[in-house]
From TrEMBL:
Domain Peptidase M14: 97-384
Keywords for the protein's UniProt record, in alphabetical order: Hydrolase, Metalloprotease, Protease, Zinc
Protein name as annotated: Peptidase M14
Active-site residues from the entry: 356
Domain of life: Bacteria
Entry annotated with the keyword Ion transport: no
Cofactors that this protein relies on: Zn(2+)
Lineage summary: Bacteria, Bacillati, Bacillota, Bacilli, Bacillales
SUPFAM superfamilies referenced in this protein's UniProt entry, alphabetically: Zn-dependent exopeptidases
Family, per entry: Belongs to the peptidase M14 family.
The keyword Metal-binding is assigned to this record: no
CDD domains: LysM, M14_Endopeptidase_I
Length: 387
């Protein structure tokens, strides 16, 4: 929602009027100088949307539409010349639905529109040219990164991450507790970086079938053994497993992984960081000074948190809090290399976690979404608290 400033207006006044923390209004309006508003400036107010239909206004006022039509002057208000603000009180993003790149794009646009203090940028592009979107939330000195859908058939991780962001943003605007956490404190402590979908081409392949573009369509079908069932596909569209692409003992994975050529899963590539998605994620970490990273995968209800003894001492306290909040098992070491978390710990000696959401066989069914979300919510909030 946007309003026009009058003489004497301040962001603090708008905060009182609309019951929104003024720092969120300030962050939603970087064009407004700290010295004050100028009359006529347009100001975005987060947490609101505009009502421009009889039905929406009637629902808000708990009145029948026909009764509303009889109010003096009602036509002037509802004919579109003077839409009315409505507080956002329910989720913005879709939940428990198949979640491809188009769904992600629509939900990101909806979030940024309603919560304009969310910063959006493109950090790179997939093989097929889809943007890899990073969202940033917060003004804190501690930078924490989270991501989802490194693996194509683990696309439910993106749906969960977007739902977490949605509820976090609404709680921020309401200055309300979320599962017992006053999250506005985290907004001041943490700058949260999220890449919800690292592998959009692969997710689209799993959910929608092969792309129209050649040679990628024919190659994907060939790599998949001629089958059009891509439900077990983990790799990117070129058949490279993106979470085996990082230079953390990559040569061990390259030697022992059965695939020696592009495959639906487990092929680490012919060299580390050959794929544009992996390159973009590495460049983001190198430029961002992250204190902690959390990569969401499925499945197993486990949190992997160590690598080669290079993890810092404070990593254990954080993972214990995450495990307690989610009910997941903390696992220090696994026989695996070349992953994003492995590389992050090896390079910076900082806290890195791989979270295996849910249980069962990938791709996990949407019937698990509500339970996975609740487990992930506790872990998400514990992560911000321990940052």
């Amino acid at each position: 929602m946007r309003i026009q400033a009058w003489p004497g207006d301040t962001l603090e006044k708008y905060g009182r009027w609309f019951c929104v923390p003024p720092e969120l209004i300030a962050d939603a309006n970087p064009h407004v100088e700290k010295g004050g508003l100028r009359p006529g400036q347009t100001v975005a107010i987060p947490g609101y949307e505009m009502m421009d239909t009889w039905e929406a206004l009637a629902h808000c006022l708990s009145l029948p539409v026909e009764a509303l039509r009889r109010l003096p002057g009602a036509m002037a208000v509802i004919n579109g010349t003077a839409p009315l603000p409505k507080r956002i009180t329910s989720p913005v993003v879709r939940r428990a639905e198949p979640y491809d790149f188009a769904a992600l794009e629509e939900d990101i646009e909806a979030l940024v529109c309603r919560y304009p203090f969310v910063r959006r940028r493109t950090i790179g592009h997939s093989v097929l040219g889809l943007p890899l979107v990073e969202l940033q939330i917060g003004r804190g000195p501690v930078r924490v990164h989270m991501n989802g859908s490194f693996h194509a058939n683990e696309w439910i991780t993106t749906a969960v991450v977007m739902a977490l962001i949605d509820d976090y943003l609404r709680a921020l605007v309401d200055d309300a507790a979320l599962a017992g956490h006053r999250v506005l404190e985290y907004y001041h402590k943490v700058t949260l970086s999220i890449v919800p979908m690292v592998n959009p081409d692969g997710v689209n392949l799993v959910l929608n079938g092969p792309p129209e573009e050649e040679p990628h369509r024919s190659e994907a079908v060939r790599i998949n053994g001629g089958s059009l069932d891509f439900s077990q596909w983990k790799a990117n569209i070129r058949g490279v497993d993106l979470n085996n692409q990082f230079p953390a003992r990559w040569e061990i994975e390259q030697a022992r992984k059965p695939p020696k050529a592009p495959a639906p899963r487990d092929f680490p590539g012919f060299a580390p960081l050959t794929e544009p998605e992996a390159k973009a994620m590495a460049a983001l970490a190198e430029a961002s000074d992250f204190a902690m990273v959390v990569a969401f995968h499925t499945q197993g209800k486990e949190i992997y948190w160590g690598y080669e003894g290079l993890e810092p001492l404070e990593a254990e306290a954080a993972v214990r809090a995450m495990a307690e909040a989610s009910g997941y098992k903390a696992v220090r070491y696994i026989d695996s290399h070349a992953g994003y978390r492995d590389w992050f710990i090896q390079t910076w000696k900082r806290r890195g976690y791989t979270v295996e959401l849910g249980e069962g066989v990938n791709p996990l069914p949407l019937s698990q979404f509500a339970q996975i979300y609740q487990e992930a919510l506790g872990l998400f909030l514990a992560t911000l608290k321990m940052a």
